[in-house]
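Q: Give me a backbone?
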Amino acid sequence: MVKNKEFKPGLYSVMAGIVVAVVLVIITIFAFTTRYTAFDPEKVARAFTDTIVQTGDGYNAYKNALVSKNQKFGDFIIDAYMKPYINDGDDVAQASFVGTGNDEEMNAMGEVYDTMYDYYVELLNTYGLDDYDSIFTNYFARLSEVRTAVYGDEYMDSDYMFGAFESNVSRYGQSLTGTDEEYADDGKTVVQEKTIGTYQEMFGEDYKFTTTVTACTELSTEEVETYVADYESRIKPVAESGEARADSFGLVDTTTEKKILFFTKTEEVNNKSAMISAFENLDCSEDITAVDKCTVEVALDDSTVVATQEVYVVQIGNSWYVDNTNIDTSALYFAL
């Protein structure tokens, strides 16, 4: 007589646990690889190109670039370009209407944003966002002047500066893609009119861009050494320029004391050091271990290629970054 096999709950639990663990690992790997692009050179090249081509947004494309390797892109902009104009101390009064939300404040904000939008487009046409140094240097200098002229105060903080700049970036994107008509919660009040964008005029109202990496070549060891040497020659002068820039604005490191209730708090304001460090952090020459040259095509739905972009991506650790010091994206700005 054949005995029935004994059911072993302990073994079953172990096997079930292994199966669940394997499934979770597979799900985690899938989610990780589909959500993050930094570990794949082709995905990095495509994301950089796609960010620009869809709405002309070369500003946010830098999140995939070397400029963001050692510091957040926003922190870099604050320390390298905003510091000379930030004037948000307790002794700097803002215009009386700031924070009221009344018509006077809305009109002032609108006037600043409109004025700066025209200037932003002018800068794009003059420099292009590959030259972010010229864009940010000129933009924030002008914004400081316009704020004072319109608001009648000298107050500036990073939130206000980002608000103006990013509003201009968004508005430029909408000028290319057009906007859909949008209604308020009542379903009747129009809060945004339908507009036809420049891309729609050029390629048809239902156009769609698709970006595809058509080639990605890994450079040899010797080629990587040559490439890194060339990169170093490009980035060193910029990375070493921080102190001279800080001195040109008269930035210094200071220590202030603030009274909080019955206590005195010492606070360091390192404007000069922050600017120097921001530029020094741009130099990644000692960390690059591999380089790939990628070609990204931009095509319409009918397969018509409207642009081809060459992108060099470099590896540092396990991550890949676009080398923003060695790229010309002018072909991706169809409206300029």
User: Anything to note?
Assistant: The chain is about 50% helix and 15% strand.
